[in-house]
Design goal:
The protein is of the alpha/beta class. The protein is built from 22 helices and 21 strands. β17 and β18 form a beta hairpin. The N terminus is likely disordered.
Length: about 575
């Protein structure tokens, strides 16, 4: 090969940069990678984003990386993927020894030296928000003397929009993460965002409008704002709520993390007009006890927060997700019960019973000995015991959490509501504790269990502990199946005694208006749709009075439920 041609080919080859994201679930995505791709788009690098999940085998992820033959591999490290990445790194280096390795993200920002000691082949670790540091690395061909890199970052308003149309196509089945601000005005001791180096910054409102238009025009499925407290600046949040109301495309949904104390009459005047399912609010309560909130530097007036959450739920148009944290200072089992009952007693649409994690770099990490905290040595650093909770207490709370998540949050809504309305008697914690203990006594683990297995065990719980409610419970379970399933088949242990086909024929004969149609609830419906529909038959008067307005039958047509006499 002539020297001139060899020189041309060598210098025409672009350096390939792989931006690697390892997500907890398929539906997630890694926002930071899209920022980094945009921040160096003016350089001549060949940049590719590759995302997978922690459920993918490490060897399979390695094969995908090797197939791309990157010159530089940049990996975003978080608590959910740190263990996975520690398994991947030695294999990556062994198979691609010439590939430069760059790490960034909160999980390496405050433990950089530990990572470099364990993996000395790492070329660079970026600490903190990384756009400016990453651009500096790119400017120097990813070859600098310092292994730990920190540069004060650009103002959030000066950072380019992370997404392109092609990105949104590739993320069609994923959440789209977006921020209109960075940092947090609060200083919760367990949160990285509370650090003094995480200053609160807002984007210009017109810039946010333009970026939201991009999502709306592309009709993405879900935009999750990652602003730590979206409504901390009422002028900013109200402007965006109003803008989204005025530009609803009847397809995209928006998720926000909000502080309930910061909702006022002006906010409710806006929020009352939100179309159903358009907004989702995630609200972190964590604890209802003032001394605990003070210890973790969390500012909240529980009574005001509770009243505002009630107002939100009363609107019946916004999906409300409430959180609490177990393992906080001063929270013994009785106080956890009180927080649990108060928060879940509000009956949000989703309830997350979380556990304190001792993240490196947080204030509570410096006080863990003061609180007698012991925690996992590896991510996610979950607390295993403290001064107020034994290891056995924590294990019980984890079992209760699994029951709450399986029943309340997933496909047992009516049964869960029945527990609240008729059995719990202001002690929901007690009833979920009883179910958790019952499951354990019977060797029933909730992991990977299907709906039928859980329902069968729940029914057994009712029969043994609340036999007077067992017939009512069967109707509740059958209704949950009816609502969630598109299958006319019903599990035998909750099947009604009535013959569905006989009931359908009776309904047709009583409501027929022509040879091919009938009228139900002032709606003309083709008879063949009734014949292939699902039908629910109530067998307890309590259920008919409570959930069916004294009707006995219900039919589901295209996910619409019609009650029938």
């Amino acid at each position: 090969m002539p020297k001139a041609l060899f020189y041309y080919i060598l210098h025409d080859m672009k350096t390939t940069v792989l931006l690697l994201g390892i997500n907890a679930k398929f539906i997630h995505s890694t926002l930071s990678l899209y920022y980094l791709k945009q921040i160096i788009k003016s350089y001549t690098y060949d940049v590719t984003i590759f995302e997978t999940t922690i459920n993918n085998q490490v060897q399979e992820t390695l094969k995908s990386i090797i197939a791309k033959q990157p010159d530089v591999c940049c990996i975003a490290v978080y608590i959910w993927n740190a263990t996975y990445i520690k398994k991947l790194l030695p294999l990556l280096h062994a198979n691609l020894p010439q590939c430069k390795v760059v790490l960034g993200g909160p999980e390496v920002s405050y433990t950089s030296n530990s990572w470099l000691t364990q993996f000395p082949f790492i070329d660079s670790i970026i600490q903190g928000p990384g756009e400016k540091s990453f651009e500096y690395l790119a400017h120097h061909q990813f070859s600098i003397h310092e292994k730990i890199l920190y540069y004060p970052n650009y103002h959030v308003n000066d950072i380019p929009f992370p997404y392109t149309s092609e990105d949104l196509k590739s993320l069609a089945n994923h959440y789209i993460y977006y921020e209109s601000s960075r940092g947090c005005p609060y200083s919760c001791s367990y949160c990285i965002s509370s650090r003094e180096d995480q200053k609160l910054q807002f984007k210009d409102i017109q810039k946010v409008y333009n970026e939201l238009n991009f999502f709306l025009n592309h009709k993405v499925r879900m935009v999750k704002f990652v602003d730590r407290t979206f409504n901390c600046n009422p002028t900013h949040s109200r402007a965006l709520f109003t803008y989204l109301l005025e530009h609803n495309n009847n397809h995209t949904q928006f998720h926000f993390e909000i502080h309930p104390d910061l909702l006022f009459d002006e906010d409710f005047d806006i929020l009352k007009d939100v179309p159903p399912q358009y907004f989702q609010f995630e609200i972190g309560i964590q604890s209802i006890h003032d001394d605990t909130l003070h210890a973790i530097h969390r500012k909240m007036d529980w009574e005001k927060a509770r009243e505002n959450i009630r107002k939100l739920l009363h609107l019946q148009n916004i999906h409300i997700h409430l959180d609490m944290i177990c393992g906080l200072p001063y929270e013994h089992m009785e106080r956890i019960k009180n927080s649990f009952n108060a928060i879940l007693g509000l009956q949000p649409h989703y309830f997350q019973m979380g556990f304190l994690k001792i993240l490196p770099g947080t204030d509570i990490d410096t006080k863990k000995y003061e609180y007698g905290i012991q925690h996992e040595s590896n991510p996610p650093y979950t607390v295993t015991k403290n001064t107020w909770l034994s290891q056995e207490d924590m294990q019980l709370l984890h079992r209760i959490e699994r029951v709450v998540d399986s029943l309340y949050n997933h496909n047992f809504k009516t049964t869960s509501l029945m527990l609240y309305r008729f059995i719990a008697k202001d002690n929901l914690f007690g009833i979920y504790k009883s179910i958790a203990n019952f499951f354990q006594e019977h060797g029933f683990a909730l992991y990977a269990k299907g709906w039928e297995s859980i329902a069968r065990m729940l029914l057994e719980f009712f029969k043994q502990h609340y036999p007077e409610y067992s017939k009512f419970a069967v109707d509740c379970l059958r209704w949950d199946w009816f609502v969630k399933s598109n299958n006319k088949w019903v599990p035998p242990f909750i099947r009604s005694k009535g013959n569905p086909n006989t009931i359908k024929e009776m309904i047709i004969q009583q409501n027929r208006v022509s040879k091919q149609e009938l009228s139900l609830n002032n709606k003309i419906i083709p008879i063949h749709e009734i014949q292939r529909s699902q039908i629910f038959i109530a067998e307890s008067k309590d259920f008919m009075q409570w959930r069916m307005d004294n009707h006995r039958y219900a039919i589901k047509l295209n996910d619409i439920v019609l009650l029938i006499d």
